[in-house]
């Protein structure tokens, strides 16, 4: 466990990783139709470079890789009474560390990084996609597992031993989680 953040948004964070055969993972945990239905219902659909629709077929991109390493973070907020709207504040230090690990792995081995659901954290001023401009940070921005059609709940459980919890009653869950992957 590592203490990250400060004040009421501080959290204890545990980082996890696991390796798998990429082909087996793709055939067992990808349901593009179900994920695309969920993506279409999201207000970010088509509005950020990390969200679908993409101008390429994600499956074509991933088929050439033999291995996948999953990276996860289990985040336990120190303060239990935090509004759900502040969940990104609580998760941001762990998210940045996990993104660093994913990008470092990609730099070393090549491949493709799939990061986390939610909005991209690299452009607080907003994404350039609505203006038809290229991504400001193509070296850092990464689509989520969900946006490529993967069942992140089953992935987290099977490969990282994380049972995802959901926030309720306007308060963040007692445990937050992030899951990303590096295909190589």
Tell me briefly what this model is.
With 184 residues, the protein is an alpha+beta fold. It has helices spanning 22-29, 32-41, 58-62, 87-109, 152-160, and strands at 2-4, 11-21, 67-77, 112-114, 176-183.
List keywords for this structure.
184 residues; alpha+beta
Describe the secondary structure blueprint for this structure.
Elements: E1 2-4, E2 11-21, H1 22-29, H2 32-41, H3 58-62, E3 67-77, H4 87-109, E4 112-114, H5 152-160, E5 176-183
Antiparallel strand pairs: 1-2, 2-3, 3-5, 4-5
Mean pLDDT: 94
How would you spell out the order of helices and strands?
Answer: EEHHHEHEHE
The first-to-last residue Cα distance is: 28 Å
Protein structure class: alpha+beta
Compute the CA-based radius of gyration. 16 Å
Number of alpha- plus pi-helical segments: 5
The coarse silhouette is: globular
Largest sheet: 5 strands, antiparallel
β-strand number: 5
Strands of the biggest beta sheet: in what spatial order? Answer: 1-2-3-5-4
Give the amount of beta strand, in percent. Answer: 15-25%
Low-confidence runs of at least 5 consecutive residues: none
Any idea how many domains? 1
Helix amount: 25-40%
Task: Characterize the structure shown.
The chain is α+β, with helices and mostly antiparallel strands. It has one domain (2-183). 30% of the residues lie in helices and 20% in strands. The chain contains five helices and five strands. The chain has helices at residues 22-29, 32-41, 58-62, 87-109, 152-160; strands at residues 2-4, 11-21, 67-77, 112-114, 176-183. The chain has a five-stranded antiparallel beta sheet with strand order 1-2-3-5-4, sandwiched between helices. β1 (2-4) and β2 form a beta hairpin. The chain is globular and about 45 Å long.
